[in-house]
Design goal:
By secondary structure, this protein is an alpha/beta fold. The protein has eight helices and seven strands. A seven-stranded parallel beta sheet has the order 3-2-1-4-5-6-7, sandwiched between helices.
């Protein structure tokens, strides 16, 4: 399949799943807009390299997904988009009573509210074009809970709700809105939570990986960024024209339990 001529914005894409999704969309021919909140030479170099590798146009646009105006400006600076992947996300692990309020607010802003703003900014152009794809990178935690992740679980359940609502508001207009729910993918975000999980569960690194993380994932294997990217490409394909308002789990069986 070819996404040649389509422009894809992927929020939070200078690392991890977002960068993996960008590579797979570029491999399918889409022009790419990478994003994060930093504005370093290496961010722009990353986009140049990706563009060269896949023979597409790739740009990096800095925008802080914790700020509504930045979210909307990202879409505007990109000149609109055909494909919007809401991927930016952060995590913090702590019991509810001691969960820092600033972390709660940041997680809700970046993992949930940013998608409201980018979706609102992208929809008019998609409606005009009569074609659009919105893919929200939710999580198994959009469908299931875990202790010590109150803000993350709330935000991810929220983005599943936003996905369904946006799908209903765009049904029959050539636009689809879906959420991918990955289980554990070994990215910097997951690496960063291992020490907190070790503390919360009083376990060493290997035990946390085996018994806390992959214990929920019956395959006992991490999902890969390429698999999340491939699922995104599928959702952008004609085969998925009637797939809207739903979740696709890529979680090694986690949510089958
Ligand atoms: P990551 O830390 O590698 O990537 C997160 C990206 O978001 C980075 O590019 C970072 O720069 C960006 N980001 C953070 N704050 C931002 C801000 N304020 N503005 C703009 N960009 C910002 O993590 P990841 O694992 O690749 O996570 C990507 C998404 O996938 C997240 O939404 C996460 O919740 C989701 N997810 C990850 C896993 C996993 O196991 N890794 C599982 C399920 C869902």
């Amino acid at each position: 399949m070819s996404l040649a001529g389509k422009t894809a914005i992927i929020t939070g894409s200078n690392s991890g799943i977002g960068l993996g999704v960008a590579h797979e969309l570029a491999r399918a021919g889409a022009n790419i807009v990478l994003n994060s909140f930093t504005d370093r030479a290496e961010d722009h170099a990353l986009a140049e390299k990706l563009g060269r590798e896949h023979g597409v146009t790739a740009r990096y646009i800095a925008a802080d997904m914790s700020k509504g105006d930045d979210c909307r400006a990202l879409v505007e600076k990109a000149g609109g988009c055909d494909i919007l992947v809401n991927n930016a996300g952060i995590q913090h692990v702590a019991p509810i009573e001691s969960f820092p309020v600033d972390k709660w607010n940041a997680i809700i802003a970046i993992n949930l509210t940013s998608a409201f703003h980018t979706t609102a900014a992208a929809l008019p152009g998609m409606r005009k074009a009569g074609w659009g794809r919105i893919v929200n990178i939710a999580s198994a935690h959009g469908l299931r809970a875990s202790p010590f992740k109150s803000a993350y679980v709330a935000a991810k359940h929220g983005i599943v709700g936003l996905t369904k609502t946006a799908a209903l508001e765009t049904a029959g207009q050539g636009i689809t809105v879906n959420a991918i729910c990955p289980g554990y993918v070994l990215t910097p975000l997951v690496e960063a939570q291992i020490p907190d999980q070790m503390k919360a569960h009083n376990m060493d690194r290997e035990t946390v990986i085996r018994e806390v993380m992959l214990d929920r994932q019956p395959s006992r294997q991490f999902a890969t960024v390429e698999q999340i990217g491939g699922t995104t490409v599928y959702l952008c394909s004609a085969a998925a024209d009637q797939v809207t308002g739903t979740t696709i789990s890529v979680d090694g069986g986690w949510t089958a339990m």
